Automatic annotation (TrEMBL):
Keywords on record: Antioxidant, Disulfide bond, Oxidoreductase, Peroxidase, Redox-active center
Enzyme class, first EC level, given as a word: oxidoreductase
Active site as annotated: C44 (cysteine sulfenic acid (-soh) intermediate)
Recorded GO MF terms: thioredoxin peroxidase activity
Record flagged with keyword Disulfide bond: yes
Domain of life according to the entry: Bacteria
CDD domains xref list: PRX_BCP
Presence of keyword Oxidoreductase: yes
Catalytic activity: a hydroperoxide + [thioredoxin]-dithiol = an alcohol + [thioredoxin]-disulfide + H2O
EC number: 1.11.1.24
Name of protein: thioredoxin-dependent peroxiredoxin
């Protein structure tokens, strides 16, 4: 499980709307990766809207932001259109990136055990090192906290 000061695991994932995103190609500026469980669920929607609303502020601070879940590109596109999302969404349908970042976890809901994404955010500096990690994220105030951390880099 990667932690602060580790080199962020590299990946190439397809992006909703077309194209691929390769993490190592983004070196030179900070990158925020927020992993979320599923499109169009209440917490995930609030988080994605929050990052979308602050996307310009992240850009002004020099950072790029990406949301990652296991949902398909078609589902991401429908989710983005329904909620007017501006934040780029990446599809990790095979869970490889989720596993590399240690966010694919056993969860329990109403006594039922299952595997799913633990809501987590990683701030990666311009050198490709993990600068901050937020695990088991609670959505209220999270986007603002991440933005503060980006500005402090």
């Amino acid at each position: 499980m990667p932690d602060v000061n580790d080199i962020a695991p590299d990946f190439t994932l397809p992006r909703a709307g077309g194209g691929d995103v390769t993490l190592s190609a983004l070196r030179g500026r900070p990158v925020v990766l927020f992993f979320y469980p599923r499109d169009d669920t209440p917490g995930c929607t609030k988080e994605s809207i929050g990052f979308s609303e602050h996307l310009q502020s992240f850009a002004e601070a020099g950072a790029q932001v990406f949301g990652i879940s296991k949902d398909t590109l078609a589902r991401h596109e429908k989710f983005a259109a329904k909620h007017g999302l501006a934040v780029p969404l990446l599809s990790d349908a095979e869970s490889h990136v989720c596993e590399d970042y240690g966010v694919w976890k056993e969860k329990v809901n109403y006594g039922k055990r299952y595997m799913g994404i633990e809501r987590s955010t990683f701030l990666i500096d311009g050198d490709g090192r993990i600068a901050r990690v937020w695990r088991k994220v609670r959505v209220p105030g999270h986007v603002e906290e991440v933005l503060q951390a980006v500005r402090a880099l």
